């Protein structure tokens, strides 16, 4: 059982550093043609499996004596130093779940405050209360989830783009709201806030944030022309390149390349493969622990 604990610790370490870096590098090489939904599924699995590995390792170390001493009371079989490990395993599970709930609550409150501010500093566009316009020369467009959702654009963006290009940008932001992409990033933002010193949390958050931009593009291009979408991206990126801290030239190049190519026809098989890989990865830590306890 102690050996199983060490194996689970090694698995947790591997999932916290080399595997995320390798997955990010592989996805960066193929994201012009890869399915972004499959990428998000893999990242979810890596995060959950890493947490399960740490929790299972703590429990394995703590309960090691019980494997070979059947029928013995817990307080009689465990040395005093194993109790903190057992508490740590349970505490880590509570901490991970609590952090996720706290992040969800914080995000909800932040969105509510943001909508209150928008009601004061913005105006509805064309009589549509779900689209707000803020007065700034910067080319901005983003969405605020919650309720029916709010799409925010700037006067600088509206002046920069023609009607078709504006429709493309608005369609992209509406897809973020319709698909609830804010929920996809919630767990990764929670893990990064709780463990900012782990590079894997930042890598995963950045990768998923990039993937949902591509997901919104793929969904929005069904209702707007690719050429208008590309023109809008080109103009906005040129404007943001002057100093926006959120500007990512590599991601912009990927998005333009995908929009310049035909829609990827086969998304079912990559997603099925991703689900299979994810289930196997997430199931390994608890199955190892349970199997060791049951069959030892």
Put the structure in a nutshell.
With 296 residues, this protein is α+β, with helices and mostly antiparallel strands.
Q: What does this molecule look like?
A:
The longest helix has 40 residues, at 82-121. This protein is of the alpha+beta class. The N and C termini lie close together (9 Å). The protein is built from twelve helices and four strands. The protein has one domain. It is 73% helix and 7% strand. A four-stranded mixed β-sheet has the order 1-2-4-3. The chain is elongated. It has helices at 2-16, 18-30, 36-67, 74-77, 82-121, 155-160, 163-178, 181-194, 199-220, 226-240, 249-260, 268-295; strands at 122-125, 128-134, 141-144, 150-154. α7 (163-178) crosses α9 (199-220). GO terms for molecular function: metal ion binding; metalloendopeptidase activity. Belongs to the peptidase M48 family.
Number of helices: 12
The SS-based structural class is alpha+beta
- In percent terms, what proportion of residues is strand? 5-15%
- Shape estimate: elongated
- Order of strands, main sheet, comes to 1-2-4-3
Task: Describe the SSE topology.
Elements: H1 2-16, H2 18-30, H3 36-67, H4 74-77, H5 82-121, E1 122-125, E2 128-134, E3 141-144, E4 150-154, H6 155-160, H7 163-178, H8 181-194, H9 199-220, H10 226-240, H11 249-260, H12 268-295
Parallel strand pairs: 2-4
Antiparallel strand pairs: 1-2, 3-4
Helix pairs in contact: 1-3, 1-12, 3-5, 3-9, 3-12, 5-8, 7-9, 7-10, 8-9, 9-11, 10-11
